[in-house]
Amino acid sequence: MLNQKLQQKLLQKLSPQQIQLMKLLEVPTIALEQRIKQEIEENPALEEGEEGDEESGDGEEEDIVNDFEEEDDDSDESERNDEDEFAFADYIDDDEIPLYKLVANNTSLDDERREMPYASGITFHEQLLSQLGLRVLDERKFQIAAHIIGNLDDSGYLQRDLHAMVDDLAFSQNIKTTAEEIHELLIVIQGFDPPGVGARNLQECLMIQLMRDDPMRDEVKVAIQIIEKHFDDFTKKHYDKITKKLEISETQLKDAVHEILKLNPKPGNTYIEHSRVQQYIVPDYIIANNNGVLELYLNSKNAPELRVSKTYQEMLEAYSKTKSKDSGKKDALMFVKQKIEGAKWFIDAIKQRQDTLYQTMLCIMDYQKEYFLEGDETLIKPMILKDIAEKINLDISTISRVANSKYVQTPFGTFLLKSFFSESMSTDSGEEVSSREVKKILQDCISSENKRKPLTDDELATILHEKGYNIARRTIAKYREMLNISVARLRKEI
Predict the structure, then answer these.
(1) How far is it, in rounded angstroms, from Cα 325 to Cα 333?
(2) Residue 95 scores a pLDDT above 80
(3) Where do the structural domains in the chain lie, given as residue ranges?
(4) 417: DSSP letter
(5) Sign for the pseudo-dihedral over CA of 201, 206, 209, 215
(6) How far is 195 from 210, CA to CA, in rounded Å?
(7) Are 357 and 407 in contact (CB under 8 A)?
(8) Which residues lie closer than 8 Å to 304 by C-beta, 6 or more apart?
(9) Could you report the per-residue pLDDT of 167-206, keeping only the tens digit for each?
């Protein structure tokens, strides 16, 4: 049954200003300039420059205001004819100087001309197609080989099944072929540079490169036997099984493994590395050590000074003094007022963003003062978002937005701000230490281990227990994976 009733509710909703501030807090310094430019383009009442910098454009602003005042004082002027508004004689000037008289050519044929060359690289597939053009193939085989090259991934491998490619050629290019013919042309492509291209798996890729080496050398012969017959044992580093099955010495195995390690497992990446765009980190904070005193600077190079346009302020005054009740002027008044308010909101949000970032980083710097002075990771204290939020009286979500995708430049390198937050662990003495300190000790233990007999997770847990850190084996495995360190079996070396 439908009925109507009155009800009161108390709700908490974020204002548009708060939403705008939350979004600006997440923006790193490198993207802040683009965000400000976007706002300037969308809001004509927002300008770059300081509040006192209003000298340029004063005449233009006065003309605009005078136009509005004249329009308000005399409504008949708005109904003038086009002939009265525009004097065509102003646009036709017989005394205008021709353009060719204003251009001077002071160069001679003997002058040296220097041009800036543009670097244009060649892609991986284009390189293979250029090598294919050097082979003597009829048009049909050339199209099949070009189709094979098009199916190679960026690493240079052919992940597509040969029988599936037969159907692809029949449907897309109306070429009838067989898997055997495609395999013959694939062998041709496998002879192209870089060595190993066109392989269907890692084992075949390594075999192609070894066969193109000098197969008569002893170490290459042993390497070919290892890859061809004992590839699984090699990937699992079961070196004892390989030496027994091939009846070779440890020195011969070491030389063969050395030859294999020189091979390129992803030959296609040879060309990708040259065309890869370098990405640079722009720090949001800069911490300097001035004779034992830490100084914090907020990187604001990409954040220009902003102000509300004086033109729009005077326009608002002119419109507010208008006695006319024309709907068009009311709409103009509302438009100007909204743009000015939007500009003020954005300027306040930028200032509040800068202040929040500075206060948060200042608290983090004081909390981790010993580390920023010494640079020793073992001095990092356990710190969570709640610790900083309670000190500066902000919400945890605000601290999370500040720490996200922000970088700090220290005398010891540039780090992601989020990396300084870590959980706490207790030692035998009851002291709380950071999990990052445990990771550093774990990394030092692995780097100094005997590579012939790497330390297992149980042995690493025992070592840390001896150092006073109560940590389980599964936690050791978790930290090892976070540090991108393999298991003991894969860290083994000859």
Answers:
(1) 11
(2) no
(3) 125-273, 285-419, 424-491
(4) G
(5) negative
(6) 9
(7) no
(8) 33, 36, 48, 49
(9) 999 998 899 999 999 999 999 999 998 899 999 999 999 9
